[in-house]
From TrEMBL:
GO terms for molecular function: protein heterodimerization activity. It holds the Pfam family Bromo_TP. GO terms for cellular component: transcription factor TFIID complex. InterPro entries: BTP (IPR006565), Histone-fold (IPR009072), TAF8 (IPR037818). Transmembrane segments: none annotated. CDD domains: HFD_TAF8 (cd22918). This is Transcription initiation factor TFIID subunit 8-like. PANTHER family: TRANSCRIPTION INITIATION FACTOR TFIID SUBUNIT 8. Residues 10-86 form the Bromodomain associated domain. Keywords: Nucleus, Transcription, Transcription regulation.
Length: 92
């Protein structure tokens, strides 16, 4: 993969995140959003997803595995302060 291909792929991913953030804003009742605010929210989402992946990878490697499992992602979410199990009414 060349650097041009990598750059194009990163740009496409960024656009997809921007579309997702825009959809979330619309769903939340916002009719418009400033470009700077949309960029900030997109950057925050990208950082969040990156950190979640990094953390899940570390838990996976700590357990001696090469592919993350759902439990790795769950523990990563809990570590990041998002205990989705509580929202679902489950105990861990």
């Amino acid at each position: 993969m060349t650097s041009t291909d990598t750059s194009a792929l990163a740009s496409a991913r960024r656009r997809a995140l921007t579309v997702a953030v825009s959809a979330l804003c619309t769903e939340g009742g916002f009719g418009t959003a400033e470009k700077g605010a949309l960029e900030s929210l997109t950057e925050m989402l990208q950082s969040y997803i990156t950190e979640m992946g990094r953390s899940a990878k570390q838990y996976c490697e700590l357990a001696g595995r090469t592919e993350p499992m759902l439990t790795d992602v769950t523990v990563s979410l809990i570590e990041m302060g998002n205990n989705l199990l509580l929202y679902l009414g489950l105990k861990y």
